[in-house]
Amino acid sequence: MITVEHLTKCYGDFMAVSDLSFEIGEGHVYGFLGPNGAGKSTTMNIMTGCLSATEGKVKIGGCDIFEEPEKAKRLIGYLPEQPPLYMNETPAEYLRFVGRAKGLKGRELATQIGEVIEQTKIEDVKNRLIATLSKGYRQRVGIAQALLGNPKVIILDEPTVGLDPIQIIEIRDLIRQLGEKHTVILSSHILSEVQAICEKVLIIAHGKLQAFDSPENLETLLRSSNEIDFLTEAGKEETEEILSGISQITEWECSVQEEALSRVSVKVDHEKPREICRQLFFAFADRKKAILELSSRKANLEDVFIELTEGEALQEMPQEPAGKEAENEQRPAEKKEASEKTAESEVNADDSNMEA
Predict the structure, then answer these.
(1) Taking the chain, what is the end-to-end CA distance rounded to the nearest angstrom?
(2) b vs e for 196-213, b when ≥16 Cβ sit within 10 Å of the residue's Cβ?
(3) In this structure, are 163 and 61 located in the same domain?
(4) What is the pTM of this model?
(5) CB contact set of 89 (below 8 Å; sequence gap of 6+)
(6) Lower CB count within 10 Å: N or C terminus of the chain?
(7) Does residue 317 sit within a domain?
(8) Does 356 fall in a domain?
(9) Domain containing 233 — which CATH number?
(10) Cβ-contact 79, 118 below 8 angstroms
(11) Do residues 142 and 23 both lie within one domain?
């Protein structure tokens, strides 16, 4: 569904994205992770056609985003980090405008507006000014506009920012449902959220792809993926002697605690750390030395993220330089006015069928 080939974006001497390539299949939910300044937002803006690239290609459903922008953009629903809202309108009015701009009209427009309002649970506030809504509800309105037009690809940049815990759960459930019919790309700094929702994860740093796999596989491949911590009454020398007899233990750290107890942390080369725990228990029992505490820890997505991006002194991305591109950019109000003029001529005959 999405193909990115050798994508590069430079701002003067600063390279925000460097020779980035990946391919995303149809359906499912994909996580897009990286430290601040790693190139996530730049990549998403290029994929949605909001920003040009220095080099490379991006194809959405086989349509080149640069050579066939109208066809490609019809396949995309996008929620940027700052939702593109008009504060002096109600959600119903705003969604009606966005739907018209996407080419919807008549009964189809009214139906889709009703559906996205129900999906994002903004029925109670649809006729209130957006300026009076909480940040959480504004985020919901932003998600609703991304869903209009029934796009095949939905790109969400920090979609749960500002939501309360109950709203976060509801939006996560919505994203899972969307992944059954759409290709969803989710960017979030909440790693537990990505791990809970996404089936595959892309991690970038310094504009380069560091990993692309399922969260489970990334955890398995992590060098510190399995660790076992325990406290024993055996002394340090005896503990190390016992550990050296278990081949799956690759390295350990042992320190003497109060009352001559040994606190031990071991790393194991084994898919089932529980089996190593059993071996440790019986090995110390044979020496009549008790293990007083024993726990195994498996790496999570946060560990993977830190290990793949640690030591990255990421720079702040400079602003888009003023030039031909910047001069051609319209302010939101100007974009709205231009789009309304085009859309209004198409829907005058259908206004009687519209329902907010």
Answers:
(1) 33
(2) ebbebbbbbbbbbbbbbe
(3) yes
(4) 0.69
(5) 97, 129, 130
(6) C
(7) yes
(8) no
(9) 3.30.70.260
(10) no
(11) yes
